[in-house]
Design brief:
Order of helices and strands: HHHHHHHH
Helix content: over 70%
Radius of gyration: 25 Å
Mean pLDDT: 89
Number of domains: 3
Largest sheet: none
Number of helices: 8
């Protein structure tokens, strides 16, 4: 009987310690995520997206299903300015390696945008920032050299938010780079018209 009482006492002691540990761990995690959020918001507010990348990566380790922070991470990768740019006077191997790192960064940004912008559209189709996210996604595809896809995304962005008139400008530039002069001319005119309408509205 004494053995049973001791066993039950030990069981409850272990259970109690485990619950306290889990509770303390949960509390520490919550404190860390709050601190990280504050840091991330502060950096994005002053256009320091690059500096926010390690904080975003840590935050997403702790909160893997945070849609908005995945989009902020994609944006930070898109605006990243700490990667070394290849220089003409460098050895070919160095230039190739630097170009690969830059390409990998933009590919990751476009992958994150694709997954999360489409998810955002599904769960919040009336989100007022949806057009803006499409616009940023379009740039990540452009920098990943997916020009045709980028064109479609810019047009989707301006369809969702008519104020994103720069989309027409970017589409015209992309068509020019593809040698499609007729399409480029059409979108230059659309850009000019949309800009004029925005000025009249203001």
């Amino acid at each position: 009987m004494d053995k049973i009482i001791i066993y039950i006492s030990n069981f409850f002691l272990v259970f109690f310690v485990t619950v306290i540990s889990l509770s303390a761990g949960g509390s520490k995690k919550k404190e860390e995520t709050i601190a990280l959020k504050k840091q991330i918001y502060g950096l994005h507010k002053v256009d320091e997206e690059t500096s926010s990348i390690p904080y975003l990566e840590r935050y997403l380790e702790l909160s893997q299903n945070e849609l908005y922070f995945k989009l902020l991470y994609a944006k930070a990768l898109l605006y990243r300015n700490d990667l070394l740019v290849p220089k003409p006077n460098e050895p070919a191997e160095d230039r190739i390696n630097k170009a690969k790192i830059i390409q990998k960064n933009y590919n990751l940004a476009s992958k994150l945008f694709q997954e999360n912008v489409l998810h955002l559209e599904k769960v919040r189709p009336r989100d007022p920032n949806l057009g803006r996210w499409y616009y940023l996604w379009a740039f990540s595809e452009w920098f990943s050299d997916n020009k045709e896809k980028s064109i479609k995304l810019f047009l989707k962005a301006v369809k969702l938010d008519y104020r994103l008139t720069e989309s027409y400008y970017n589409v015209a530039s992309l068509y020019e780079s593809l040698g499609q002069w007729k399409d480029a001319s059409l979108y230059w005119r659309k850009f000019e018209k949309a800009e004029k309408e925005l000025e009249e509205e203001d």
